[in-house]
Design a protein that fits this description.
single chain, alpha+beta, 3-stranded antiparallel sheet, 3 strands, globular
Length: about 70
């Protein structure tokens, strides 16, 4: 998923939006690490509103552990 930062520092989905963006995998642990390590600020090269990151993360149903079979 690609995210971008608005002029006010909110992190929003950025598919098709111009400007600097950051890519994240669809995994809750990935988002947690990115928030903890301040990766959004580094990737987007600006201060971001952490509450907007948490809100955006809450909008997604992250996949849980895979069930057996299928492969």
């Amino acid at each position: 998923m690609r995210v971008v930062c608005t002029e006010r520092g909110a992190v929003v989905p950025g598919s098709g939006m111009p400007g600097r963006g950051a890519w994240l995998c669809p995994d809750a642990a990935c988002w947690e690490r990115a928030r903890h390590k301040r990766a959004f600020e580094r990737a987007l090269r600006r201060a971001v509103d952490v509450e907007s990151v948490v809100a955006l993360e809450g909008e997604f149903a992250f996949p849980t552990a895979r069930s057996g079979g299928g492969r």
